[in-house]
Amino acid sequence: MARQRRKKERGVVGRVLLLYALMLAAALLIELDGRHVRLTLSGGAETVIAVGSAYTDPGCSAVSDGRLFGVRGGPIPVKATGAVDAGTPGEYVIDYEASLGTHVYHTQRTVRVADLTAPVIRLERREGYTPSWFDGYEEEGYSASDNYDGDLTDRVRRSEYDDCVVYEVSDAAGNETVVMRQIPYVPGRPVITLAGGEATEIPLSLMPYADPGWRAADAAGNDMSAYVRVEGEVDTGRCGVYERSYRIDSGRGEAVCVTRQVSVVPATLPETVIPGEKTIYLTFDDGPGPYTDELLDVLAEYGVKASFFVTCRYPAYFDAVGRAYREGHSVCVHTASHNYYQIYSGEEAYLEDFKACEEMIREQTGGYTTLFRFPGGSSNTVSSFNKGIMTRLTADMNARGYQYFDWNVDSDDAGRTRSTAGVYRNIINGCSGRTACVVLQHDVKDYSVAAVRSVIEWGLENGYVFRALDMTSPTAHHPVAN
């Protein structure tokens, strides 16, 4: 019995040892197998969706997995936590959890909600509008908007080129849109044509430069002359070569430009022509004055033309200058001030006085004259306080294209003669035996004006014709004494 009992006990111990060995082997196998939960994300660990879109989680699966025995059993339940606000840009995390025994396993997915849509630029169009070269392109309008940022019109960057306009805009997320507008310009640049050519020569003068003019037209024949901008001065009082530019600037920053070279050279006076018949040139100094209209009435009655060497001393009678010009008489410069000591103090003083008289003549007649008489004549000695002034002035004024006249018949109405009869006698005595008679009178002297009717009648009865002075008339120059 005892033997059987011991044998039985040994059998129990053996079974226990075997069970223990089996359990030890199983534990070793489990350890070697490394059994765990394997979590698999559908769609990847990171994903990006557009703001405003609907987010649907692609899910996550879990299984029991080991190194030795692989996947065993069915799917393991997975718990997901976390939410995605698809209407608000940002990064969101979804956590996935699964358990195996006492072990808990996790994996995560990052979802980035972003503005992925580029802004939209809309270009407006104006019906029938075609930009021209001159005006350039006038913006027709545009707008820009973004699905998330809203109106972006004020953030549009606009760049204008030769034949297109480029519009660019970016939203807050950096999405950029570029749109180009082609500009169908009317073809052809305007052409500027200069009257008188691109090179001209003018004589030295005291008067401002009178541009011969220009014309500009575009390819369609539209007159664009008014848009020409002229630059460059011409000093008519100084010999030299001057350049003037004529240009039109377009609205696109382009320009059409031509230039004219103006050469100012000493004037060449025409040859004096001695009349072939007996001629009297009646000339009147120092007006206009209170008797000038009376004189003009007498001249008109006989159809006689005369010459008036005018001053600016009596503004109330300036309109007589315009009348004389309209009735065919010669209007000439005498002096503005008739102040000997002022005008003969220097060349500049003389020229300033001369120009003042010219301006009055222009205001009354619409133009300037090239005929003049020195106060006191070219032979005056009252200017001797400025040595050589008359020698210099006579040469300078001729070089500027002005013809000066003295006289060879003196009525002496500014001297000792104070009667009409005396004036008449001096004139007819001075004219007798002469072919070309340049008569000096003063229309500010009433007794001298009163003699004109008799002088005209005497001249006509004695075969004389009466003419006004011009650039070719006899100058009756005196010897220059200073």
Brief overview, please?
By secondary structure, the protein is an alpha/beta fold. The protein has helices at about 1-35, 290-300, 320-325, 340-345, 345-365, 390-400, 420-430, 445-450, 450-460, and strands at about 35-40, 45-50, 60-65, 80, 90-100, 105-115, 120-125, 140-145, 150, 155-160, 165-170, 175-180, 190-195, 200-205, 215, 230, 240-250, 255-265, 280-285, 305-310, 330-335, 370, 405, 410, 435-440, 465.
Mind explaining what this structure looks like?
The chain contains 9 helices and 26 strands. Strand 5 and strand 6 form a beta hairpin. The longest helix has 32 residues, at 2-33. It is 23% helix and 29% strand. The chain is rod-shaped and about 200 Å long. The strands form 8 sheets. Strands 19, 20, 21, 24, 25 and 26 form a 6-stranded parallel sheet that branches. The chain has a 4-stranded mixed sheet with strand order 2-6-5-4, with no helix packed on it. A 4-stranded mixed sheet has the order 14-18-17-16, with no helix packed on it. The model has no long low-confidence stretch (mean pLDDT 92). The N and C termini lie far apart (183 Å). The relative contact order is 0.09.
Mass-distribution shape: rod-shaped
The quaternary organization reads as single chain
What gyration radius follows from the Cα positions, in whole Å? 56 Å
Total of DSSP H or I helical runs spanning 4+ residues: 9
Number of strands: 26
Mean pLDDT across the residues is 92
Proportion in β-strands: 25-35%
